[in-house]
Amino acid sequence: MSQDGATLFVADAGARSILTYSIAQPKAGPKVFAKLPQFRSPSGLAWVDEGLAVSDDGAKKLFFLSKSGSLEDMLPAEH
């Protein structure tokens, strides 16, 4: 969920992307927030500072995205 509660963020592992859904317009379809070539199976989402952290077990990485969905940084995920 966005910090203002207006947008739901969903990790779509099958499409290797992060989608958004408008809470105010539930009949509107999803919009692609981020689709990176490095994504393998994005799953966990969390707001960190001013961006979105995405865990991806398939890629074995943590991705850090800006509020606009661009890649800011990535780190190896430790298991």
Explain the overall architecture:
With 79 residues, this protein is mostly beta strands. 0% of the residues lie in helices and 51% in strands. It contains no helices and seven strands. The mean pLDDT is 93.
Q: Specify Rg, calculated over alpha carbons.
A: 12 Å
Structural class label: mainly beta
Question: What percent of the residues sit in helical stretches (DSSP H or I)?
Answer: under 10%
- Order of helix and strand elements from N to C terminus: EEEEEEE
Strand order of the largest sheet: 4-5-6-7
Globally, the shape reads: globular
Strand content: over 45%
**Averaged pLDDT:** 93
Distance between the termini: 26 Å
Q: Low-confidence runs (pLDDT<50, min 5 residues)?
A: none
Strand count, sense and barrel status of the largest sheet are:
4 strands, antiparallel
Number of strands: 7
Give me the number of helical elements: 0
Key structural traits:
79 residues; mainly beta; 4-stranded antiparallel β-sheet; 7 strands; 51% strand
Give the topology, please.
Elements: E1 7-12, E2 17-22, E3 31-34, E4 42-48, E5 51-56, E6 61-65, E7 71-76
Antiparallel strand pairs: 1-2, 2-3, 4-5, 5-6, 6-7
